Amino acid sequence: MVWKSPAISTGAKTSVSLEQTPPFPKEGIKLSSLDFFIAECGGRSELEGLTTTDVNNMYQKPLTIHMKSSYCDFLKTQNSNSVGEAKVFISHAWKYKFLEVLDALQK
Fold first, then answer.
1. What is the pLDDT of residues 33-85, one digit of tens each?
2. Better pLDDT: 57 or 15
């Protein structure tokens, strides 16, 4: 199935179909679980200087590519307590240094 953006109109009879909007995930990875992720990658020294794109390509994709799913969904298959109801949504540029983003989130 291909998701299509709903038509946008400035007219008075604007109608948006929710059926055309992809579902937004309600689960996320707990911030407290990121230390475990870092350890699984070999520690902070292995991730130093890497961008989020780098970490995704080098560490997350190899774990999730066979499932064709998110890292969050992968963790759920591991009976992990690392996944819970999302309380916030974090958006950042994937060219930022991964550890700097995590450090900022933890502060």
1. 888 899 999 999 999 999 999 999 999 999 899 999 888 888 988 877 899 99
2. 57
Residue labelled with tokens 């009879």: 13
Report yes or no on 18 lying in a domain: no
If one counts the domains in the chain, the total is: 1
DSSP single-letter state for residue 33: G
Closest CA to 63 of 86, 80, 49, 51: 80
Q: Identify the domain containing residue 46 by its residue range.
A: 27-106
Inside any domain, residue 7: no
Q: Is residue 12 part of a domain?
A: no
Rounded to whole angstroms, how far apart are CA atoms 58 and 92?
19
Alpha helix stretches (DSSP H) within the chain:
34-40, 44-47, 52-55, 61-64, 71-77, 98-106
